[in-house]
């Protein structure tokens, strides 16, 4: 059946009996959900998975309440909360890996003298580049990368707005990229 002309409410009602109604909802809101997922997750494959998950959830458990807003706002809220859950999962994984790495002895690899000199020079450049950042930029990057804190947690710890922390992180990363770009390219 061609559901393209039907209002959202009828499509949601029809989902239980005709799964093809989901296609019309996907055609209307798929780009919106996917775009939001890409913006939050910064990973296209993960955003595709999340978009699929949101629409499967819509089909399997219709929790939409028309009194709380439009279908579009419901789907974007659902996508946003699921994306944030995934980001938190990443943070937990990073913390677990870091804890494991810190508790296990490092593997010693034999290095040639040129490799040792190169590693030492790279370390010196990274430290010098970090030292050139503003105190705020350096502090938030250290809290994020060494302590594994989210930007919201950093904002709470420092008592500053979240937007300020995001700005410091971005400026710090851009400054490091400018200073160390030849090391990562």
Q: Can you give a write-up of this model?
A:
With 185 residues, the protein is mainly α. The chain has two domains: 8-93, RNA polymerase sigma factor, region 2, helix turn helix motif (Rna Polymerase Sigma Factor, Chain: A, Orthogonal Bundle), CATH 1.10.1740.10; 113-184, Arc Repressor Mutant, subunit A (Orthogonal Bundle), CATH 1.10.10.10. Helix content is 76%, strand content 0%. The chain has eight helices and no strands. The chain has helices at 8-14, 21-41, 44-60, 71-103, 113-132, 135-145, 151-158, 162-184. Helix 5 packs antiparallel against helix 8 (162-184). The model has no long low-confidence stretch (mean pLDDT 81).
| DSSP summary: helix tally | 8
CATH domain topology of the largest domain: Rna Polymerase Sigma Factor, Chain: A
Assembly type of the chains comes to single chain
Portion in beta strands: under 5%
Could you name the CATH class of the largest domain? Mainly Alpha
Number of strands: 0
Order of helices and strands: HHHHHHHH
How far apart the termini lie comes to 52 Å
User: How many whole angstroms does the radius of gyration measure?
Assistant: 23 Å
CATH architecture of the largest domain: Orthogonal Bundle
Unreliable stretches covering 5 or more consecutive residues? none
Calculate the mean pLDDT score and round it. Answer: 81
Biggest sheet layout = none
Task: Work out the helicity level.
Answer: over 70%
Describe the global form.
Answer: elongated
CATH superfamily of the largest domain: RNA polymerase sigma factor, region 2, helix turn helix motif
- Strand-pairing-aware structural class: mainly alpha
């Amino acid at each position: 059946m061609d559901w393209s002309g039907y209002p959202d409410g009828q499509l949601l009602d029809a989902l239980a009996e005709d799964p093809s109604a989901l296609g019309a909802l996907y055609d209307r809101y798929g780009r919106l959900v996917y775009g939001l997922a890409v913006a939050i997750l910064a990973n296209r494959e993960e955003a595709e998975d999340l978009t699929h998950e949101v629409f499967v959830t819509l089909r399997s458990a219709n929790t939409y309440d028309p009194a709380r807003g439009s279908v579009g706002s419901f789907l974007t809220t659902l996508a946003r909360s699921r994306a944030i859950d995934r980001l938190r999962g990443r943070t937990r994984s990073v913390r677990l890996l870091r804890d494991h790495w810190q508790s296990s002895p490092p593997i010693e690899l034999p290095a040639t003298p040129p490799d040792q000199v190169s590693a030492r020079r790279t370390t010196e450049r990274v430290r010098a580049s970090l030292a050139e950042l503003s105190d705020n930029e350096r502090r938030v990057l250290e809290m994020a990368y060494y302590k594994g804190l989210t930007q919201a947690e950093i904002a709470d710890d420092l008592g500053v707005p979240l937007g300020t922390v995001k700005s410091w992180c971005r400026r710090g990363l851009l400054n490091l990229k400018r200073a160390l770009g030849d090391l990562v390219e």
